[in-house]
Structures are given as structure tokens and as C-alpha cells.
């Protein structure tokens, strides 16, 4: 006999979380729980405001319809909506024992806050030092100076940068001007520096700074191809779709020799622990981009290792089904 439940949750965020010029005060999402016989599976459906095309209410309607039909025994395909497809596919994969338990809990440190504390934390990172810096939120010159200082101060540091298409070609060049050419090889990649792919490719060609595709992967007509200056793709499963679609994109990118990074869309600890498992499964040996739990005031259902944030369980959630 099949059982299904959908819960709605809300967790306060730190005051400083800004996405596409929109300040988020809470992270709101859904949790899927499937049970069949002795087996159960969990999944998270959390559209990202400003990035997902669907709203949470739209995802909720789609998930409720799908779960009602699944519970009645129908054989179903997954919804087309990315966040719903991802969360439901994770729950189905757990139910079937198809999502490996091994997880990659190392995460590229997200750099923010007080510079002195930041340098101390980076210096203490064990093993491979990989960190991420959001650029494009301030002046390009300032971003260039900050990145240069980090690379200069920590010779074993590799940086991943993310501009979210914030720069014109001129702004991108202003950024690059302040990054010592001798340090640029330690920029693993800069995600989508410019407003168009053509401008970003020209930036990579002119500066020698490698770029990565992120938003482009979700655009109509995008196809994977080997292009000079492109070193990696960043896959955000919550924005991509089902686990199968994520796996296909990973395989396509790897076949071209591109690096692949599994990245967070500010999921709860439940979603992050599943992304850590997906990263260990599909991109073994690569540190994922999952350092977003510190933006939240609580965890959800499953704890992230070594986090002392309080954890919410189902009794604190709103059942919908």
C-alpha cells in the first residue's frame, strides 16, 4: 500500500541574503514523504525566487496532484516543473534504494563577512582549499581587488567566482585588470561573467580567466560543446529537474572533459544532505558548492554534520495531504 504526505515549511534567513536585488527574509519550501511497504523516501521541493520559473504555490499544486495519483497506484511520469521533478525523483530514488548513502560533505567555503575572520577561516581549511566568492554585487574594481588579495595572501587557495551575468564587457575587463595575471590560473572558473554567452566567451579569451556555465544550462537551445575558455559547468539540481536529467547533464559535460560541480539553491539541510549524496555519486572527488546552511536559522529533518543549528521535524511542519 502506498502512502504519501506533503509538508510545507518556512525557515528564517540571515538578513543579508539578497538574490537578484531581492532580499529574502525566509526560505520556504515543501517536503515530500513517500512510503510503500517497509520502504520510505524523502525529497525537497524548493523553488529559488528570482531563478526558478515556478512559484512555490505552483510547485505545491503540481506536487499535490502527482502525489494523490501516485498514492492511488497510478504509474506516473515526473512533472515537467524542475523543482517538483527533482524533489519527487529524490523521494522515489530513496524509496527504491537507488540514491547511494555515501556523501561528499566537504563544501567550497562561501566567502563573506569580516575580512580578518575570513582569512583566518580560509587559512584553517583542511586539505584542498577551495572557496567561492560572489562577484558582481559591488563595483567590479572592488571585486577584482578582493579576489587578488585572497589569491595573493593564500598561495594554495583555488577560487570559484560567480557573477550571475552581472557585468557588461567593460565591467568584466575592469575586474580582470585588478587580478594579477600570475594568479589567474588559480581561479578555477568564473560563472557567467557577462550578460550573454558570447560576451563571456570573449572575456575568457581576452583575460585567460576560465569560465563556467550555470544559467546557460537551463536555457532553451543550449547544447553541451567544448569551447575555448570554458572549464566547467555548475549544476543546480533544484533548477534542473529530475535526478535522471541531472545525471544526463553530468555525463554530457564529463564526456567533453568539463569539470562538473553540484551546487545548492539554498535548500534546507534535508536538501543539502541529498545534494551531498548526489555529488559523491555523480561527481566523485569534486568538492560541491553546498556552503549555504549558515544562511539559515534552523535545519530540517536531517542534520548536516557538525552543524549546531536547531532542527525542525515533521511535528513543526504544515501537512498538506
How does this model look, in words?
- With 321 residues, the chain is an alpha/beta fold.
- Helix content is 32%, strand content 22%.
- It is built from 9 helices and 15 strands.
- Helix 5 (169-177) runs parallel beside helix 6.
- 44% of the residues are buried.
Total strand segments: 15
Order of helices and strands: EEEEEHHEHEHEHEHEEHHEHEEE
Structural class: alpha/beta
Main β-sheet description? 7 strands, parallel
Strands of the biggest beta sheet: in what spatial order? 6-7-8-9-10-11-12
Number of helices: 9
Query: Can you tell me the overall shape?
Result: globular
Could you tell me how far the N terminus lies from the C terminus, measured between alpha carbons in angstroms? 16 Å
> Average pLDDT, to the nearest integer?
93
**Low-confidence spans:** none
In short:
The chain has about 325 residues and is α/β, with parallel strands linked by helices. The chain has helices spanning about 55-70, 80-95, 115-125, 140-155, 170-175, 195-205, 235-240, 245-255, 270-280, and strands at about 1-10, 20, 20-25, 25-35, 40-45, 110, 130-135, 155-160, 185-190, 210-215, 230-235, 260, 300, 310, 320.
